[in-house]
Amino acid sequence: MKDQIHPHSLTQAPHHAGTTPGYMPGFANDFETEALPGALPQGMNSPQKCNYGLYGEQLSGTAFTANPPERTWTYRIRPSVKHSARYTKIDLPYWKSAPNVDPDVISLGQYRWDPVSYGDQALTWLTGMHTMTTAGDVNTQVGMASHIYLATKSMVDEYFFSADSEMLVVPQEGRLRFCTELGIIDVEPKEIAILPRGLVYRVEVLEGPCRGFVCENYGQKFELPARGPIGANCLANPRDFKAPIAAFEDRETPSTLTVKWCGQFHETKIGQSPLDVVAWHGNYAPYKYDLRNYCPVGAILFDHPDPSIFTVLTAPSGVPGTANIDFVLFRERWMVAENTFRPPWYHKNIMSELMGNIYGQYDAKPKGFIPGGMSLHNMMLPHGPDKNAFERASNADLKAEKLDNTMSFMFETRFPQHLTAYAAKEAPLQDDYIDCWSDIEKKFDGTEGTK
User: Fold this and answer.
1) How far apart are CA 220 and CA 254, in angstroms?
2) 201 — phi, psi (to 5°)?
3) In Å, how far are 328, 389, 402 from 299, measured between CA atoms?
4) Mind spelling out the 3-state secondary structure of 299-353?
5) Range(s) for CATH 2.60.120.10 in the chain?
6) Catalytic residue among 83, 304, 347, 383
7) Which DSSP string corresponds to 133-195?
8) From 56-65, 181-190, 360-369, 409-418, the region with the lowest mean pLDDT
9) Using 50, 70 and 90 to split pLDDT, how confident is the model at 67?
10) HSE of 266 in the Cβ direction (CA atoms, 13 Å)?
11) Which end of the chain is more exposed for a tag (fewer CB within 10 A), N or C?
């Protein structure tokens, strides 16, 4: 059968480069969209016969009895069972899942890495995924993994979905396109993408090489944090999240679909593109979000609030007030607190903190924590400013100051994060990072009293 081209159809790379995706605003909305007029049934989900000879199929992101249920009805050229054949187990050696406790690796410590280099080998989204830490257990759907992705070439006639996890993608360099079952999402540095569990997609390199960070969420999906006393405004506003409009491929070409399931990878060979959803409606969808729209709040008189005040998204656990994962953003902002040590204070924390630098300098570590780099301060291990940052902040003229040209983030989880062998032995680990606190001086003088 000849490939069918439609005004709202997807096309295979490199033709995507000139395409402008369309989006719908809102977070956790009930969206509806169709790429062909009349493709979306009205007033019911499962008509006896769908228009255009389409098949109705539901994608459920929660148990049927969850409140509210998260599900999307799709109307597609073939049901997904036609995009699934016999599976063959494959190995993606640098992509690991929890539990992943290597007896030869010490995860107890404060660690920092330089940006991971691209190397000489061409890498796709799948072959360029490098796991740095894991936490929890993928089989019981708790915890997370953190990854560095490297992508230098597009996936061609290759598709992927994770049955294990939702994926939060934080680009640091280059531009990517996610061609998903539900439409197209383009992302670049200062933006993020959220890809739900079970969603099929292909990743294209629009401008490469591409590097960034991924939080693989094994647990309940990310949601907006409850603002509490902050009220209805600021932080991340729902209207700034964008879901894609419907777009589809009707392409008869040999293709490979790779599935991540319980930490293992399997592939199946099919005879067509699985991105064949012509219309859909529901609240289970991918999103993009521009981090420049995040409106931080903070102290306007004295003291430094907890970093939780900068939460963009949170993935809840079964314990109220304790997240499976928090995604926290440290971006440009004004510092105005009086008589206050303004950078993050020294602390140790039951939550483990993995940070990444998107661009600029982080105020507590002005040297060594460079764009594309990562750091890990694991559960209950002390950390905080180095000596120079402490001295500068302790003696600064406390006028209003714009903290500019900075964007870092944190994947924070209630679980300890275990280093992979790659993170401990192959990635560009800064062996001297622990020494950044070695020259902190004793200042105590029991004879002086309070100054």
Assistant:
1) 34
2) -155, 165
3) 17, 20, 14
4) CCCCCCCCHHHHEEEEEECCCCCCEEEEEEEEEEEEECCCCCCCCCCCECCCCEE
5) 15-105+120-291, 294-434
6) 304
7) EEEEEGGGTEEEEEEEEEESS--SSEEEEESS-EEEEEEEEEEEEEEETTEEEEE-TTEEEEE
8) 360-369
9) confident
10) 13
11) C
Distance from C-alpha of 75 to C-alpha of 22, rounded to nearest angstrom: 19
Q: Is 416 helix (H, G, I), strand (E, B) or coil?
A: coil
304 is annotated as an active-site residue: yes
Quote the tokens at residue 294: 């995040």
Which pLDDT band, with edges at 50, 70 and 90, does 5 fall under?
very low
What's domain 15-105+120-291's superfamily in CATH? Answer: Jelly Rolls (2.60.120.10)
Asked if the peptide bond before residue 68 counts as cis, ω within 30 degrees of 0, the response is yes
The domain over range 294-434 is classified in CATH as 2.60.120.10: yes
Residue in this structure with the two tokens 């994962």, named with its chain if needed? 325
pTM: 0.93
